[in-house]
């Protein structure tokens, strides 16, 4: 019976590599025992694939298929971790341009409201632009506060 493995895992990618290149060839390119290599594809095993063995197996798989499943899986795992870890920073980055745009428009409206001959239209425009600016900066403050709270959490 085939053991269930998480789809985005080194164990799953290794299982596929071993199936494609063959356990005997995998043992040759890594100088490891076949049983040991098979056991590394078990997610419940406490032992993990070494970087050197990963490279050797991925190189062999690439020769046969042109694909590097271990490398690709590791990259996807890193990207997924970074997305979770830096999601607040990404949100803050996403808010930066709207904050700057609204602040610039508020500043321009304020300057227009202070000119000779400015009246109620210019004052209303400034109030509207300033409120929009405050709304965007408030969103950015919330993202920054979330980042601070996350940094203060124990690991």
Give a written overview of the molecule.
By secondary structure, this protein is mostly helical. The protein has 2 domains: 10-81; 86-152, Helix Hairpins. 77% of the residues lie in helices and 0% in strands. Helix 1 packs across helix 4, helix 1 (10-21) runs antiparallel to helix 5 (69-85) and helix 6 runs antiparallel to helix 7. It is rod-shaped, with a radius of gyration of 28 Å. The mean pLDDT is 90.
Short précis:
This protein is mostly helical and 155 residues long. Helices cover 77% and strands 0% of the residues. The protein has helices at residues 10-21, 23-30, 34-40, 51-65, 69-85, 87-113, 120-152.
In angstroms, what is the radius of gyration?
Answer: 28 Å
The end-to-end span amounts to 38 Å
* H/E element sequence: HHHHHHH
Q: Regions with pLDDT < 50 over 5+ consecutive residues?
A: none
Q: What shape does the CA trace take? A: rod-shaped
| Overall pLDDT | 90
Indicate the structural class.
mainly alpha
Question: What portion of residues belong to β-strands?
Answer: under 5%
Q: Enumerate how many helices there are, as a single number.
A: 7
Q: What characterizes the major β-sheet?
A: none
Main traits of this protein?
rod-shaped, 0% strand, mainly alpha, Helix Hairpins, 2 domains, 155 residues
